[in-house]
Amino acid sequence: MISWNDLRQAIELLVMEAIRAGWDRRAVQRLVTVIFKELQPLSFSEALTVVQQAASKLHLVGSSLYQQLFCYSSYNPQQKLSLLLDQLDGELDQYGMLQLRGDHQFDPALAPHARFWHVLAKTVQRAYPQGLLAASNQTKAKQVHQLRMYIDRQNIQYIRTYFKQSNMTDEAALRQYVFTAVPKGLGGKKLKREPARLHNNISKEHLI
Prior knowledge:
The chain is mainly α and 208 residues long.
């Protein structure tokens, strides 16, 4: 039998995990608000499941829960990008290529048209209003720039996972994605290209 004490301990562990992941007070407060709102109509057993699922979603970059913490955090744009890279354990290897080794990963259900990508792009623009080349910390700027590779990989993997069937080309799977109803697909809307979403006018010579 699940008791209130069991649920309280699970919530405390969830909050501790959020703090360990680097979220600030305002983000953690948002986490608690969201969780308690979801738990109100549930039994102890159902509530415990929700809390346990939330603990997993904390580690999924771009999930609904992660996005709320990212948006509500009082960190400035550069601090938010640093937090994201820290959670992904992003480091440039000996060849100057970004490697992600953290316990966080992009949410497998994060679609190419998801609002989180827009939020992230705006965060980059606000963090580097003069462009990445003007950044005082060029190592961090390269990491932010190369994060685009992982975003592209996530977008491709999403389409292959949810739309590509046997003997289907990537182009056919992309077409299926475009015409699938929202929120899973684009609902027939024109697929728009977002130039310089995270590139922010950095030249190739600065990636060597």
